[in-house]
Specification:
The protein is globular, with a radius of gyration of 16 Å. It is of the alpha/beta class and 160 residues long. The protein has a 5-stranded parallel beta sheet. It is built from 5 helices and 5 strands, in the order E-H-E-H-E-H-E-H-E-H. Helix 1 runs parallel beside helix 5 and helix 3 crosses helix 5.
Amino acid sequence: MLHINILAVGRLKEKYLAEGVGEYLKRLSSYAKIDISEVEDESFPDNLSSTGRQRIKEKEGARLLNRLRKGTYLIAMDAKGKMRSSEETADLLNKLTVEGRSHLTIAIGGALGLSKEMIERADLVLSFSKLTFPHQLFRLILLEQLYRWFKISRGEPYHH
């Protein structure tokens, strides 16, 4: 069974998001072992300089890098990443499984995104859209997509 670790910056605070995440974790339990690891996010003022923004991303990125399992296939979620369809991403999951990879990590940055180091370490930099999503809401979107990918890869129906 595939083991997926979602590394996320920040704690999930909103009850409705936590409930949605819980629902998708339950649905995904028959397809993969899913863990969510949260690292502390940095607070910052709205008028932070670009150097300050970079420093924040580096601090959060270092925390994420410290949680990476050796040998994991790392997908970094970034708005500038490659966009793929649900079917293409389901094919990637199948390919990784066929290659004998049993551990996958998906990294979600904080409010400012992922650090340069996390992007460089990634095996794949993936984007879901050119739109910007709140990082906490994105966690729920990611879990829904994981569920969709598994349904597609197994040829099971998925109601939109």
